[in-house]
């Protein structure tokens, strides 16, 4: 029998020093991301905005982790805020991965719209499910339903991270990407997959309670993959990784016109 007496709150006391140091690291990445985005005139716009939101949400969550006591964090308002911040931050990276696929200029507008709208609808659906699960988690009579909705939400996001690879292969944009663009997208998608597998696992009551006993699990399987993805995006900002791709687009257009 799983002890859900403290559900949905974590049982550990957050390590404020560690959280503060990690907040500083993400803050530096955020600052560099903003500077480079300004230099690139916020292009490609959607990718820039999505990853800006992801940076901000993770940074704010770490600040709260570093400043709030356990008693304060384990209130309905504070827990809801921190849960939303983490959920939004992770989902923005996944959306950025999908949107980056459409930035080579070799896709038709219909395919690009399908990828953008399809990934957006999936993320919104998962967000609605996890929000509903959060609301139901505070009532002992609806905890089972809450876990079922958590599992459904996690499954949607997990499927998104898995089918990303066959979609990437089928649309054949990889041959029009720079090596740096391929690298950043590969790392970002792999780290997203790690987080979603972890979230799928902890959507089961036993593992949810077990992982909420130690902060270690959060840092290893949730924070670290997200941080790696954001830092890699900052190091290989789209203003650099898409430069050669843009030139390739100019070379491709005459060929397309000749074929027509």
UniProtKB/TrEMBL annotation:
TM segment ranges: 17-35, 47-64, 76-94, 115-139, 151-171, 183-210, 216-236
Domain of life: Eukaryota
Organism from which the protein derives: Adineta steineri
Keywords for this protein: Membrane, Transmembrane, Transmembrane helix
Name of this protein: Uncharacterized protein
Lineage of origin: Eukaryota, Metazoa, Spiralia, Gnathifera, Rotifera
């Amino acid at each position: 029998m799983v002890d859900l007496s403290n559900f949905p709150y974590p049982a550990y006391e957050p390590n404020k020093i560690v959280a503060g140091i990690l907040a500083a690291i993400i803050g530096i990445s955020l600052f560099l991301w903003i500077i480079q985005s300004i230099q690139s005139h916020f292009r490609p716009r959607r990718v820039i905005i999505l990853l800006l939101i992801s940076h901000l949400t993770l940074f704010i969550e770490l600040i709260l982790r570093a400043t709030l006591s356990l008693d304060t964090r384990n209130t309905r308002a504070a827990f809801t805020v921190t849960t939303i911040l983490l959920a939004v931050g992770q989902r923005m990276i996944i959306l950025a991965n999908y949107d980056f696929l459409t930035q080579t200029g070799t896709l038709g507008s219909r395919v690009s719209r399908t990828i953008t709208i399809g990934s957006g609808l999936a993320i919104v659906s998962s967000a609605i499910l996890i929000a509903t699960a959060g609301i139901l988690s505070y009532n002992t009579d609806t905890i089972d339903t809450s876990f079922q909705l958590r599992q459904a939400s996690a499954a949607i996001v997990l499927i998104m991270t898995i089918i990303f690879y066959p979609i990437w292969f089928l649309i054949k944009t990889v041959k029009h990407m720079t090596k740096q663009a391929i690298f950043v997208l590969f790392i970002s998608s792999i780290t997203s997959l790690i987080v979603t597998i972890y979230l799928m696992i902890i959507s089961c009551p036993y593992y949810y309670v077990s992982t909420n006993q130690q902060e270690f699990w959060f840092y290893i399987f949730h924070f670290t993959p997200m941080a790696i993805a954001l830092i890699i995006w900052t190091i290989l900002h789209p203003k650099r990784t898409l430069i050669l791709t843009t030139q390739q687009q100019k070379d491709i257009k005459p060929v397309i016109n000749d074929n027509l």
